[in-house]
Design brief:
With 201 residues, the chain is of the alpha+beta class. The chain has one domain (53-197): Lipopolysaccharide (LPS) transport protein A like domain (lipopolysaccharide transport protein A fold, Sandwich). 18% of the residues lie in helices and 44% in strands. The protein is built from 2 helices and 14 strands. Strands 1, 2, 3, 4, 5, 6, 7, 8, 9, 10, 11, 12, 13 and 14 form a 14-stranded antiparallel sheet that branches. Strand 12 (172-177) and strand 13 form a beta hairpin. It is elongated and about 110 Å long. The termini are far apart.
Length: 201
């Protein structure tokens, strides 16, 4: 009987003490809580909305495609703009490209700017172009055209190439599929071609 009375009194006291304890904890939280400083709010991106509406753009875009001869072409950029109203294709800045051919070779493309010519199905790179081939050649020129449907990369202006055989200067350069050997590719220098032979020590 005494045990039952003790249990009843304990329950009664707990019904009073526990709610009071909860109130004490809540009031402590509000008293100790740090005052919110509006200046510490999450910063918003500093973007001119009106400018973005006038000149829409995309950050870090990537284009990937497969040519008819099985080569994989991937091009990424820091920023790209959509096609203009006058019919000019999409443009981009700070481009990096990679062409991987079925024979296991690869060609890296780097350029300051570029755009897509949808009518010619070409990617046009400009503002200084560097082509790095897995065969050991590094070619530098002003601009470059790359077909989107076939493996055909051309530098139509004077180029300087450094490779295993030395330094080559030429009027133009072109990388295409070899029509005489299935699965092979040709890197050809055209026009006035000069080679400064530098033998490997």
């Amino acid at each position: 009987m005494m045990q039952a009375d003790f249990h009843t009194r304990l329950i009664g006291w707990l019904k009073v003490i526990l709610p009071l304890l909860a109130l004490v904890i809540l009031s402590t939280l509000f008293l100790v809580a740090r005052t919110i400083n509006p200046d510490d709010a999450l910063p918003y991106a500093d973007v001119d909305v009106e400018e973005r509406l006038r000149e829409p753009r995309m950050t870090a875009p990537t284009y990937a495609g497969l040519t008819s001869d099985g080569a994989a072409l991937t091009i990424s950029a820091d920023e790209a703009r959509p096609a203009a109203a006058d019919g000019a294709g999409a443009s981009a800045s700070a481009l990096n490209g990679l062409l991987e051919t079925p024979d296991g070779g690869s060609t890296q493309l780097v350029a300051g700017a570029g755009r897509v010519d949808p009518a010619a199905r070409q990617i046009l790179l400009s503002d200084g172009v560097t082509v790095i081939s897995s065969t050991g050649w590094t070619i530098v020129g002003d601009r470059l055209t790359a077909d989107m449907d076939t493996t055909d990369i051309a530098l139509p202006d004077p180029v300087t190439a450094t490779g295993p055989a030395g330094v080559v200067t030429a009027d133009t350069m072109r990388l295409t599929q070899d029509g005489t050997r299935n699965g092979a590719y040709l890197l050809v220098f055209n026009g006035t071609v000069k080679l400064i032979y530098q033998p490997v020590n």
